[in-house]
Design goal:
By secondary structure, the protein is of the alpha/beta class. The chain contains 15 helices and twelve strands. It is globular, with a radius of gyration of 20 Å. The protein binds nicotinamide-adenine-dinucleotide and zinc ion. Nicotinamide-adenine-dinucleotide (NAD) binds next to helix 2, helix 4, helix 5 and helix 6. The site of nicotinamide-adenine-dinucleotide (NAD) has 29 residues, from helix 2, helix 4, helix 5 and helix 6.
């Protein structure tokens, strides 16, 4: 088992990564002084509930916790005000009070939703995240919680740090392969922005990761979380440095929007976005290796590196212009300047971005 701490002063919290953690969940909760006298609410989605809910409920009840459960539909659409209201109804019905704890059992969707329930219910109660996706290495660190508005993703939210985050590797074995690859895309991203040694390790261990080898997964999650936690601890509120975590996201978010949030998984869109950012970097004078290596590493994970035929370049450009980072023909980009290093570059010409996005249709 591995442990690390997200270091945020009095809001610091531990993350545990290992096998068989759910069987010992009561100990982890007791260690963090999660109250037994107030009822708790587990928020999960239908897919996760099928595989893992019974085990979590059983072990919490055995440890003496009073547990209520709310199951929401799987997918991004559950990050909505309507579902938030429904879940808060469940919290009220269950009699949750100020000393109660919300348990997020699931991936980033459940984590963001349940975290926001915890941030807003009675002006804020505690929450624990039991993360069941690889992607959640990202969403479980940094305390950004919230829901979507029909006009914009993640626009209603708060900063609210969890008490505790648990990753039981056993839960990842029920994930669809596509979600595994997509989650690994962002783990690799943490290396590409910060740590060339981790990228080299990732390269050597790609097959082991895709085969869900326990040691490899534990190490990858540990390193991905360590890098994200380090960056967040330097800039919790995203004044500047934290923005580097958005490598590949300027193009990637636009692709998700244009594709209607159902064609591409987040990590797939970010994969294409990272290839785009690398191409842009090379056009602006960075070594060609930045692009060839980025593309090679992502292709090895069988992630998409080419813009899907059906997505229109004009629509992608206009989706990027709605991005808050865009000002009068000039854009802000996170550019990889070498493997393991990025730079926040302001004033990138939108015409150059358009050329690069157009070229992304011709990748092979
Ligand atoms: N708060 C942050 O800082 C932050 C950072 C990155 C991403 N996010 C958010 O995270 C979300 C994406 O997260 P995600 O990729 O984990 O999505 P997700 O939570 O929707 O999970 C992906 C799919 O896998 C299923 N699933 C989850 N765990 C499973 C398991 N163990 N076995 C079988 N199926 C399982 C889910 O039901 C879902 O269908 C987005 O909403 C994104 O905005 C937030
Ligand atoms: Zn992301």
């Amino acid at each position: 088992m591995r442990q690390l701490t997200v270091d945020l002063g009095e809001r610091s919290y531990p993350i545990f990564i290992g096998e068989g953690i759910l069987e010992r969940i009561g100990e982890f909760f007791e260690e963090r002084s999660i109250h037994k006298n107030s009822p708790m609410l587990i928020i999960t989605d239908k897919h996760v509930a099928v595989h893992h809910l019974d085990q979590v409920t059983l072990h919490l009840e055995q440890a003496g916790y009073k547990v209520h459960v709310k199951i929401v539909p799987p997918g991004e659409r559950s990050k909505s005000l309507a579902v938030l209201e429904d879940v808060i109804g469940a919290a009220l019905k269950g009699g949750l009070d100020r000393r109660s704890t919300i348990i997020a059992l699931g991936g980033g969707v459940v984590g963001d939703l349940a975290g926001f329930v915890a941030a807003s219910y009675m002006r804020g109660i505690r929450y624990v995240q039991i993360a069941t996706t690889i992607q959640a290495h990202d969403s479980s660190v940094g305390g950004k919680v919230g829901v979507n508005h029909p006009f914009a993703k993640n626009i209603i939210g708060a900063f609210h740090q969890p008490e505790l985050v648990l990753f039981d590797i056993a839960t990842l074995r029920t994930l669809p392969l596509r979600d595994i690859r997509s989650g690994l895309s962002e783990v690799l991203k943490e290396g590409l922005i910060w740590d060339a040694d981790f990228v080299a390790w990732f390269d050597r261990n790609t097959e082991a990761l895709l085969a869900l080898d326990s040691d490899a997964l534990q190490h990858a999650l540990y390193e991905g979380i360590r890098i994200k936690a380090h960056i967040v601890s330097l800039d919790e509120r995203e004044n500047d440095l934290r923005a580097i975590l958005n490598l590949g996201h300027t193009i990637g978010h636009a692709l998700e929007a244009v594709a209607g949030y159902n064609q591409l998984l987040h990590g797939e869109a970010i994969s294409i976005g990272m290839v785009g950012a690398a191409k842009l970097a090379v056009r602006m004078g960075c070594p060609a290796e930045v692009y060839t290596e980025t593309k090679r590493l992502l292709s090895k994970l069988a992630l998409p590196v080419k813009l899907p035929e059906n997505l229109d370049v004009d629509e992608i450009m206009s989706a990027m212009m709605h991005d808050k980072k865009f000002k009068e023909g000039l854009m802000v980009f996170i550019l990889p300047t070498a493997i393991g290093t990025v730079e926040i570059r302001k004033g990138v010409q939108s015409d150059l971005v358009r050329e690069v996005v157009t070229e992304l249709k011709r990748e092979d």
